[in-house]
Specification:
Helix content is 33%, strand content 40%. By secondary structure, it is of the alpha+beta class. The protein folds into two domains: 2-33 and 193-230; 42-183. The strands form two sheets. Strands 1, 4, 5, 6, 7, 10, 13 and 14 form an eight-stranded antiparallel sheet that branches. The protein is elongated, with a radius of gyration of 28 Å. It starts with a helix and ends with a helix.
Length: 231
Amino acid sequence: MWRLACGLVTIKNSKVSIGSALIVIIFTLSLACSNAQAQTTTSFTPIDKFSIPEDNGIISFAANGTYSSATFQNNTWTFTNLQITRSRLLENLEISTQNSNVTILSYATANNTEFTSTTLRYAVEGDGKQTLNLNPGSGQETIEWSVTFNNHFIDEGDGWSISHDGTIVVSGATGNVSLARDDYFNNASGYEQHSVAIITAMLVAITVIIAVVVKVKNREHLNESELVKSV
């Protein structure tokens, strides 16, 4: 009887432990998801100016929007999670301008099974130079770039150039400028691309583990019960 009572207590405690583990796991996953989604943003309007005094440049936007951070270093503005009204989210943008004023008009992306197409449009006043990187540090896997000045395609080396890290330098452009690239490999992180699949796989794995643990525990307690009866 004493062994049977101990077996019942052990079963009860194992159920409590498994239940507690489930609660902790679910709480942790929900907290991680909420933290990933929660962001502190700052709003801007077309009247806001991001100046570059040493280079005689000003950056502004044609529409309202938000960003999570805007830092200025080495005469370059870096925007994180930039969201312009009626445009897609731009995770990272580095931009500087010399002897010219730039108004960012829009940012768009299009995806298919083979590549991602990205387009940034801006208007420029002044015969100066602009330096831009649409996603610094993402491992540029770009197959093709195209640049237009006032809807006219411009050859590389004739008004614009690109470095190995994806930084584009535009010189002498006035009016509307469009930068477009086709990436045959998506630069988004694995978690961003497959977050739902990852979470689902984690939950399935956790469920399987718990089921195995419960099965093993029940088998052990069943053996103990049979042993008690035999005694």
